[in-house]
Amino acid sequence: MIVTLTPNPSLDRAYELPSLDRGAVLRATRDRVDPGGKGVNVSRAVAAAGHRTVAVVPLGGPEGALLARLLGEHGIEAAGVPVAGSTRVNITLVEPDSTLTKVNAAGPELSAAEAEALLEAVRARAAGADWIACCGSLPRGLGPEWYAQLVARAHRAGLRVALDTSGSALGATLAEEPDVVKPNAEELAEAVGRPIATVGEAVKAAGELRERGARAVLASLGADGQLLVDATGTWFGHAGPVAVRSNVGAGDASLAGFLAAGGRGPAALAAAVAHGTAAVQLPGSVMPTPADLVPDAVTVTDAVPTDRPLAEPVR
């Protein structure tokens, strides 16, 4: 069972448009609403794989009520923490060529009491959990050290924590030794303060995050594959080229696959690559089911191609 925490969840509304004309009245040809936020996406992928998951989320206003209902429809247990502000709504405009224009709301500002209630909700629901996945940016009102408090409390209770965040929140939490952190190439580069243009440079950056406290680093490198750097060594996983429909939530699907497969070692990395590869071939933020996975297309090796240039280097 995997508990996820999304401190700043959302309702994600997508509108498909025949064209995007600034200043015009636009009529959508299709629209949909999904529960959103990185931890929520992890829960969606875990539930799609047939595993139990509990999503801890702050919920406010009618938007929060709708989010809770949608989580239930996805087979996810919602552990909602009432907050005064309304759950944010994010808007995606989809053009016929699949170009996406996103408008993300800031979300509510949480009080000190609401922040403590979130920590307590995680503690209350995490008993017996295999993993706690803490994912996404922190809302207003929560300082960058907030995730560090959660990791410290979880470790005192003997629980394992996966952390998927970036910037100051990631930096402030490394000293508490999260069991795995999951940056992408851009977040790796930000964390070490320099460009990343090759697989080898990504390996070096991941090693530096381990030196700063992370017990393992699962790094997404886009079309180039994924890295796992932990105490046993370095592993590189990749799959063959695929037709990408949407990369929204692909990293979240990868983390879900990794944790559901045990959260350590090359087998878990292979599961992460299979889930991420399946996710990019699905529309919007749809999470893959076991039927979407092609594990035989995944290769995992400890012969890491350190000289390989990244298809999308971070400058």
UniProtKB/TrEMBL annotation:
Gene3D superfamilies per the UniProt record, alphabetical: 3.40.1190.20
Enzyme class, UniProt record, top EC level: transferase
SUPFAM superfamilies: Ribokinase-like
Pfam family, one: PfkB
Molecular functions per Gene Ontology: 1-phosphofructokinase activity; ATP binding
Family annotation (PANTHER family): 1-PHOSPHOFRUCTOKINASE, 1-PHOSPHOFRUCTOKINASE-RELATED
Family the entry assigns: Belongs to the carbohydrate kinase PfkB family.
Protein name: 1-phosphofructokinase
